[in-house]
Specification:
Layout: H1 93-113, H2 117-120, H3 128-142, E1 145-149, E2 152-160, E3 167-175, E4 178-182, E5 187-191, E6 194-206, E7 209-217
Antiparallel strand pairs: 1-4, 2-3, 3-6, 4-5, 6-7
Length: 219
């Protein structure tokens, strides 16, 4: 595995970012678009409410214009980028869980398209691991390479004690086997499938909705 591979699953971004990274760490191989560091998280003043609230006026569920709409590593013909579910725009515990699952799907789409553009819209500067994974995806593309496989299937997601953050969510997922190929089809690197991978996300609620401020593998 090449240096910088951090998520052995997310193992290889540099072969897939998420599974085996030491201080850090998309949707479903069958339906990845369904809606259905470790730095200390900063103190947040606004607690998660227990009842649904309307999203801030600035929250948008539209896929950002810089996100690729197709790529070399689709699970099916015509696969499109995932769209944030309405629930993920809510300042509630359930909304936080829905957002964390959606964030995983933006990473999954990164492996489909060899681009960190989508996930970059949903984390803050404090999330060093997030930036590392997004950079790994972009650097792979710049090197004239792409992924085959390493697609995510979310198995479970649940709220965790948030500490100083607004919310915290653990997401458990499986990853398909993966290869890194050059644009001419030459094999560069690879990894086996991984099951039961888990990442914990710490979230803050902003005027733009939920954002990831930190993430790391669970023990």
């Amino acid at each position: 595995m090449r240096p910088g591979a951090a998520f052995v699953p997310f193992v290889m971004v540099g072969v897939v970012l998420l599974a085996g990274c030491s201080g850090s760490t998309p949707g479903s191989p069958t339906d990845p678009g369904s809606s259905d560091p470790v730095s200390v998280a900063p103190s947040i003043s606004s607690p998660v409410t227990s009842s649904p609230t309307s999203p801030p006026a600035s929250v948008s569920r539209a896929v950002p214009a810089d996100v690729p709409t197709t790529g070399p590593n689709l699970v099916r013909k015509g696969e499109r980028p995932p769209v944030m579910p309405v629930l993920a725009t809510k300042h509630t515990p359930a909304g936080a869980v829905a957002f964390a699952k959606f964030f995983i799907r933006t990473i999954d789409w990164g492996f489909a398209t060899t681009s960190g553009a989508y996930m970059r819209h949903y984390f803050t500067k404090s999330c060093i691991e997030c930036a590392s994974h997004a950079d790994g995806l972009d650097n792979t593309r710049k090197a004239g390479e792409y992924y085959l496989g390493s697609r995510f299937r979310i198995a479970a997601a649940r709220s965790r004690p948030p500490g100083d953050a607004d919310a915290s969510v653990t997401v458990t997922f499986d990853l398909t086997s993966a290869e890194v190929l050059t644009n001419h089809g030459r094999f560069v690197d690879g990894d086996v499938a991984h099951t039961g991978q888990s990442r914990q996300f710490w979230l803050t609620w902003t005027s733009d909705g939920w954002r990831v401020i930190n993430m790391r593998p669970t023990s």
